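Follow-up to my earlier ticket, as requested here are the two runs.
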Amino acid sequence: MRLIRDRSPIVFQLDFDEPEDLRSASQIRSAALAGDTLVTDAAGLERFIRGSSSEFLKLVSAAVSQGGRGYLDDEAAQSATSTLNSGFEGARSLDASATRAAADLVQSLLTTRFSGRVGRLLQAIWLGSGGALETFPAQIDLREDLSDDALLFLLKYPGIRDEDFWRRISKRTSVAQVGRLDLPNGSPNLDRLIRSGGESLWARACRIVPLAPRLDDAPPQGEFQWVVDRNLLALDGLIYRAYLSEKTEDIARVDVDLDDGTSIRDLHAKPVNELVIHEADLEANGERLRFEMDDQRDIRTSDTILRLTEALGDRATVWRAVVSVDDSPRLNCDFRTKTVSGITNSKPTLAEITRAAFIMFSSLAEPELHELAAFVGSSDKDQQTLF
């Protein structure tokens, strides 16, 4: 076993009977553990695979096939599946005893590489369920952040509808990390994560582009869906896709057809309630003009800009504006690239920056913008007074 341990070997017994000499059986187990080798038989492996009814047990089963060790006969497999299942549910309910038993089993059943991954997944479930990092009942390399593997597993795991769970998880992840995950079609849990973590997840830039027609994986008409594309978190909304990034320069991954800008009339037509336009950069006849108010008022309330609109007509184009939505930090809106970005070092929440982008750059009607506000995690008050 020492000679082949580096190849993650699995040794199958052809004789299914337990060795009569108990000391010999113990020696086999000890040698298998020391050699990072899995010694099993058809009955034991089949019992373990068939007993893996949950997604968590399927994950462990796959890990055993790649990095299992020790002695796994029929009886051991039955005991292992029971312990692991109880441990997963124990982490959900903060049952320290059941969680510890599962974590200890993971460390003895899997090589270091795989036991670390599964152990950190149990830790993530423990933390998401409200447990403290220092009270996690296992001797593993504790870490505040979530591994990509653990987060991806949670986002694909069915049936976790607890908003408090996802709110806690959102505080230990980021938009950048989600963008690294393989979720081209999103998942219900990804939607829950973003909605529950609207106050902790942030992005510095948001760019809207027309959404190319899709077939089988397209969300139903009238719904929104979070996905991952081009290593960026993105929101699909009807005929648009809004990409988000923590670094402004990363949004350049998304190609866009440059636009001349929008008209002053279109700017005036934007919803009034909850949206304040603080300043606007205009261009007319090759000259540029910046219009802003001395106080916090919306520039659309100014008689001067109304007269300017009448005088310039369609000759003037607004190519940039600074806005805020609700009590958000001020956001820079570039109409040429359909991009909203934070100003200076501000960190707009996903709710703030996506709402600003859809209000400024999309043709969504007010009912659809209400749906957007609810979907991205705005408060009840925000939803009631959005427009």
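Run two:
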Amino acid sequence: MDLHYWQSQFEAWLGKNHHEQDSAHDIFHFRRVWGTAQKLSTDEDVDWLVVLTACYFHDIVSLPKNHPDRHRSSVLAADAARRILMNDFPAYPEEKLAAVSHAIEAHSFSAHIAPMTSEAKIVQDADRLEALGAIGLARVFAVSGGLGRFAI
């Protein structure tokens, strides 16, 4: 099964099951992070299925910015992603679950978990780049509005 197959499976699942916590962590965010990730490396040794999966599930749990456990979002997302992959995607290669979990845990700035693999570094960099520029600014306004705060 190729990456396009898995991407379509993940998108279908997210369309049915993911009711984003805020508009900054929706399917469009996941797609942009994946698109950026693909541009960050041409290394043939990178496990692109791990990167794809982590990009699509890295914010499956995203606690609000003002939540006291916000720093745990990536760990909670990694746990949720593992459960989702095991339960809803039985053909997903079990041997990739640990690498996906690590990439999801390490993507978060607030978690302070160092990325130890190329895949985790790519996902972290792609997600952080998503926070920059016009899209990043739009996401700030979306999150601020959702919290009832002014961004300026």
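The only thing I checked on run two: The chain has one domain: 3-146. Let me know what else you need.
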